[in-house]
């Protein structure tokens, strides 16, 4: 039985791939700088005898062929980049690159896909079709490495019928998986606003336009775009997260800068909101006597899991891990450039549990103490191999 063979190989290879994870974790690289990571992944694929092509400078597309390779094509995806965070974990495999850390689990994702590749390569006479292996750069930074992988033809020759990706879930216990049909992660756009006037003495505000006051009014006003224009049943968030302006108590600054993020679960509303943000910001600032520069850096689209494709993967996960170990994941306003793939082909983005509270492994992603229960690597590479072999 294929499922049992995959479980057996995942267990057999577990220690080997925990060491792979240690290497990747100790040598993190920022988005679009994954040169050594890419070399390491390619060296592992070489050792397995799996052919590959380089895409998006540091990205890799491996190719596995089973029986009847033209009968189906499925892509499996992992991301490789790290974050600009100083690690605080005291572990033997702690980051050796100051200020850079695998704090979002991309080292785990890459390890799991490498493990799944080795498993599937050893069993290629027992599954049908072709499996493309996407090792992707730049998930953490606009415009997203997925967009460059697509640009460079990762979804062509052959074109996958569907794509599967996974992500660590620090809120989900070891051995658990979670899936969701439909929208699961939000789009993400970055807002950059500069308000300018001639500035002046704080005791004579009538002689200038108060950029600080205008910025304050604008921040409050922008919230009304969400609360009074968006359908309240469709999640959406606009957060201004940075205000920069002024340097003393008695000078109205000539310039104030704002930065923030806008997120949505609906692509139609997303486009409408961009228009409303521009209209409201420009109108308010100019009406109060100042000038404005506004840039909306359009980022990742919504991750929209195909209901049929994801439903099939979910059923297979129940079969592989046991129905009690598979649940429905929550909708999140976080973003993932996996959304670029789901705009073009059916996709399934699922979660793997890495939490072990008894051992203090409970910190969230994007924090200096994030870590995983490494037994999740065996679970993950088994599940990824099974879904790759069986999903249609």
Summarize the SSE layout with pairings.
Elements (H helix, E strand, L loop, with lengths): L1 H25 L8 H14 L3 E4 L3 E7 L7 E7 L26 H17 L7 E7 L8 H7 L10 E12 L3 E3 L2 E4 L1 E10 L3 E2 L9 H19 L6 E9 L6 E2 L2 E10 L2 H21 L3 E7 L5 E3 L1 H15 L4 E3 L10 H4 L4 E9 L19 H16 L2
Parallel strand pairs: 3-4, 3-5, 5-16, 6-15
Antiparallel strand pairs: 1-2, 2-4, 6-16, 7-14, 8-12, 8-13, 9-11, 10-12
Helix pairs in contact: 1-3, 1-9, 2-3, 3-9, 5-6, 7-9
Structure notes:
The structure is a single chain. The protein is α/β, with parallel strands linked by helices and 392 residues long. The chain has two domains: 2-185 and 302-390, Aminopeptidase (3-Layer(aba) Sandwich), CATH 3.40.630; 187-297, Alpha-Beta Plaits (2-Layer Sandwich). The chain is 35% helix and 25% strand. It has helices at 2-26, 35-48, 106-122, 145-151, 211-229, 267-287, 307-321, 339-342, 375-390; strands at 52-55, 59-65, 73-79, 130-136, 162-173, 177-179, 182-185, 187-196, 200-201, 236-244, 251-252, 255-264, 291-297, 303-305, 326-328, 347-355. The strands form four sheets. An eight-stranded mixed β-sheet has the order 1-2-4-3-5-16-6-15, with helices on both faces. A four-stranded antiparallel β-sheet has the order 10-12-8-13, with helices on one face. The chain starts with a helix and ends with a helix. 49% of the residues are buried. The model has no long low-confidence stretch (mean pLDDT 97).
